[in-house]
Amino acid sequence: MSAKQGAYATGRWEPLWASEPYMSHRIVIDLSARRVIAGQDRYRKRWHPMSVRDAGYLRQILEETADDIFDAPREHGFELVDSPPPWALEAWPWPRVYGLIDDQYNEAASGDHDDSALHRGAVIVQRG
Q1: pTM of whole model > 0.85?
Q2: 121/1 Cα distance (integer angstroms)
Q3: Contact 24, 42 (CB under 8 A)
Q4: Which alpha helices (DSSP H) does 15-85 contain, by range?
Q5: φ and ψ at 26, to 5 degrees?
Q6: How is the chain split into domains, by residue range?
Q7: Beta bridge partners of 30
């Protein structure tokens, strides 16, 4: 991928299925790796960090429903950029606990959790 074209694509992706609350996504795609490398979900009038698992799931959705987005992102309203936008480089809320599913992570972050879920071999992961 030449620098003239941009190494990344960034833009909004609207869900194909209804959800409550309604959610949209802004994502960054590494075009050479054909991967979603960063994302945020917008619901309840705020942007929320997307988990690594959710970014992987969104990549799967893109591959199944709009595979050409990796080759022609502009046709999907995405902008080509040389580096990820500032929002994609923000630190995640801490601590990110490896091995927990999102629901368990949300419970842990809110303080409403079973301590055993946090101590089953959990390791704090750093985003680098």
Answers
A1: no
A2: 40
A3: yes
A4: 52-65
A5: -120, 135
A6: 1-89, 91-128
A7: 8, 35
